[in-house]
Protein: HECT-type E3 ubiquitin transferase
Organism: Argiope bruennichi
Amino acid sequence: MDEPRGPSITCPSCRISIVPSRARSMCPFCGSFYNRAADNDVTLRRRNSGDPVRLPQLVDNGNNPPRSQPEFFLRGSVRSSDEEDAGSRQIVQVTGFGPLITDTLGVIHTYITGLLLPPTSPESTPVYVSLPPISQGGEGQLVTLRGEARREAYVAPGGRSPLLSPSTKSPMLEDLESTLILYPTKETSLRQLREDIEEAKITGDYMRLQEFYETTFGSLLDICATFKINPDSEGAKAEDPELRMDFLYEAYDNLADTPTYVTKAALKATIGAVLANNVRLKAKDETKALFALLHNPLFSNQSSYTVFAHLFRRLVALSSGDHQLLINWFARTDPERLRQLVKRILQFITIREFPPANGHKLPSISKSRWWIPSATRVLALINTANSKNSPNLIPYTEFYNSALDHINLMAEYYRWQNPTKNHKFSYCQYPFILSIVAKKMILQRDSEQQMILNARRSLMSRALHQQAPDIDVFFLNLNVRRSHLVSDSLNEIARKQSDLKKKLKVTFVGEPGLDMGGLTKEWFLLLIKQIFDPDYGMFVYHNKSRCYWFSTTQAGNLREYNLIGVLMGLAVYNSIILDLHFPTACYKKLLSPPVVPQNLQHANVGVWKFGIDDLAEVMPDVAVGLRELLSYEGNVEEDFCMNFQVSVEEFGGVKTHVLKADGENIPVTNENRQEYVQLYTELILNKAIYQPFKAFYLGFHSVCASNALIMLRPEEVEMLVCGCPTLDMDELRKVTVYDGFHEEEPIIKEFWEILKSYSPDLQKQFLRFTTGSDRVPVGGMGEMTFKISALNHNTDMLPISHTCFNQLVLPRYKNRDILREKLTIAISNAEGFGLE
């Protein structure tokens, strides 16, 4: 390992200082390249200061061999070399000197008139540069001076300016620099490529294809020249990258069927394209070329990850305007192509995070810590593009990286909450990549930390007041009567607001139950059932959507709405699954905003900008009518005879709402029908229920006040509250442990056969009987614990459950019929404290 040499240098991109081990190093935080000489030489970094560099006259002596590969000049790039003895001239290497162009005869014309300035001292003499000649027939070719073609150019002593400063450029040279970006003409077309592929398959000779990949992907210039619809065009369209994507995909798709030496040649060419810097391209062509390279399937191979990482680095380094272009282009990408791209990036992140022992050796984390942040930021662009489409191009769950469930999630969370340095990356900054299981773990651990903190405060308070310690100070203890469940719960929660963030324990008055979790589940279950009863008039059940929505006619009972919010918050806080049937619109409102604003009196909470699709989740029949109104081609005013006034029927009554001022006198017309639909949607989902939902919102956030909520999507909040609706008995069987039984016993096999034969409703009742809830926790049944214990005596008993421990006690019944009968009776009559 090289020892660090010299002083520290600062990365020009992320501004972090390190002590490099080599003269030319790569920043381990962002991947940018820089060198010690350039960092120490202030004049080379400050391009607009000091005196202009004196340039010598250029002489072509014709002694250099012609260069056949067309390339661009690197503009104004100089590298300091060793200085000669004191008082001598300083020498710099010229790696690029303005654009050179050949006319039809191949003659080089250089316009440097007016740039030649005399040396600063009489002793100074100019040094001449020898340029290589251009071969005949080189029309449109550009030459770079590098390698053996480099020559020395004179810089006056003390001269510390760029090769060409703005003050010394002639107008003629500026015109040339702006116009002489010429792309080589590419002969291969999509048709020609297909013919070459077929010929190669027949003859086994892939040399022509190898040449195609080498010359097509060897530089960003060649990529643009090959795949741009119009290579001479400037700029970019927001809606279209203007690339021949069918040609590009054909070239990529056939790589897998070529010999190894062809894919290696293609990858080698791609490396050169990604790592080349300062290549002059037409406006926005770099963005187009990088977009094209990102779809390369060769990046699925672990051996290509280093260049894949540098491609991410270049994409991240683009301007915000270019990022917006990429988002628009990703949003119009074929869904299957987008899915494969997302998988490649997720695989890259996983392998960098968990390198396989027998895989391709990757650079050490200390030298490549920028890999994962760069890849994640590119993935964020794709996620943004995916979210722009309704429906999404691919499900949001396909951006989950389940491997990250096994990292130190709380370290990521605390790093996000308490950033100490500007280079500290956290996955929590990009929550779309974290699975719902990971987010649940973060929320649960954060809740536990808050519980411990509140319990500690209560204990310290008792100690300060010289009171004896009491175990009850660690819990939110609710004592309720079954006969007065709602009123007792309201009163208990109102009295114990300061204890809401403690561990919940429920006691039913007059019943000798010890709450180890089962009584809490039952309390939630019974309370939800009563509050959502139509007799309470708080929520309206819509048969067609099979969900509840807030009553638009209910003016009072804000305490009850607040209680429902508290219940939901307690459920999430205590990891309890509730059987609630709210539409996704409810959870969108709960996250609007995800954290209660400080100036609550002047802030609107629970307000979301909804569309007709959101209304369809609540009132699908109304949404159908509104869509018909929008698509109607006749005279809306005469045929519909509607005004800006609507009637809503609830609980057998009808209430009229005016959508806008004087709405009863404003007819709905072809011109204003869009406004009518928007106001109708706003009324049902926001305006008419604002006060009840505000109470509900504040109740939820009074308990579940965690910054982790910022990371959640509305659909994920719904899953945390309600669990997974899918029941998979095979998954439950896999996680089951046995006490007194073994898995291959006939009674156990018969038990699972009976359970799988039940209807979905009976399966839910079984789940409620054994666990206290008919909902599956986040992550599916594989995340549950379940135990079946044997009862060897008294086989006339019904099965017994311990909901606190997800345990079923099963007698050894004599045959299958008795087992089915007893089990069905038990799960069908499970309500009430008849269970332990």
